[in-house]
Task: structure prediction
Amino acid sequence: METESTTVHYLDFKFKDALTREGSCYLYFIIRETSPRLVVLCVQKDDTYTGQSITNAAENIATQFFNEQSVLYDLDPLKDLYWIEHYPYGISKLKGDTDIVTFEWIDDKKEFSDPHWVPYDMQDNSILIPEIKLLLSAVKNEETNPKTS
Result:
């Protein structure tokens, strides 16, 4: 999915949590020219998925994905990551639909820690609203027209 200058990339991402349990999620992301350069929408798999949730493994997923991407794009963990967590409608009745997640960065370990969630609709993120809408529309399009392997 593309607009004039923005391409949405998609991954069926495999990760390990802090206890090395395996899980997977969908990552939709945009690489931007300005900070934050990496805008990521992390999507929980449907209710038939039995692995680790994206909420319980948020810092592990962000760390693994960011470290992979930073090699390619020379990213700064304190300025260049914007992380959004999304549960498609009907998957979790206790969780909000979309949250902005912020992390602390442990430089000597090269990992994120201490995640904090704030519901998306309570944020003032006007600079990223087009990108967030684009990512969410890619998810909605995928939900109605799934990719085939």
User: Anything to note?
Assistant: Strands lie at 9-16, 22-31, 38-43, 81-86, 98-106, 111-119. Residues 9-143 form one domain. The mean pLDDT is 82. The CA atoms of residues 141 and 147 lie 10 Å apart.
